[in-house]
Structures are given as C-alpha cells and as structure tokens.
Design goal:
This protein is mainly α. The chain is 85% helix and 0% strand.
Length: 81
C-alpha cells in the first residue's frame, strides 16, 4: 500500500502505473526478505537458500497473476450484467 500511495500521490502517476509499482515493490520486499532469512541459515546450504528465494518469488508472482486474471473475469462479468 505504501508503494501505491507513493507512486499515486507523491509521484502523481496514473492508477495503472501506481498499481504496477506497488506490485513490483511487494515482489521486491518478499524476495529480499526471503533472501535475508535464508541467509541466516548454514552457509553450506547456499543452493537451497537460492532455491527457496526463487520459489517464493515464483509463487508470489503466480498468485498476483491469478488475482489479476480473476479481476479481469469479474470486471468482464460485471460489464455483461
């Protein structure tokens, strides 16, 4: 929400660009947090740490994509009614 507010109110971007920046900030925050938390473990498991971070980022992007598609379907159905 903070990324959306900063892009919309302070940078005066349009709503779609603000939503895109907010999405990228969420992906970056989750990926950065996953990388930081996985680095707290043993250094010998670096491959598993990278895999964990990448898998979490992939799952987050998949969820965002699913929500985007469901929003498109819902908007289309609302237009038809």
């Amino acid at each position: 929400m903070l990324g959306f507010y900063l892009a919309y109110a302070i940078l005066a971007l349009s709503t779609p660009w603000s939503a895109a920046i907010a999405t990228l900030s969420v992906v970056g925050a989750v990926s950065g947090t996953a990388a930081f938390l996985s680095s707290l473990h043993d250094r010998r498991t670096i491959g598993m740490n990278i895999g964990f971070s990448c898998a979490l980022t992939f799952l987050l992007l998949t969820f965002i994509g699913f929500c985007l598609v469901m929003g498109i379907v819902a908007a289309t159905l609302m237009l038809l009614v």
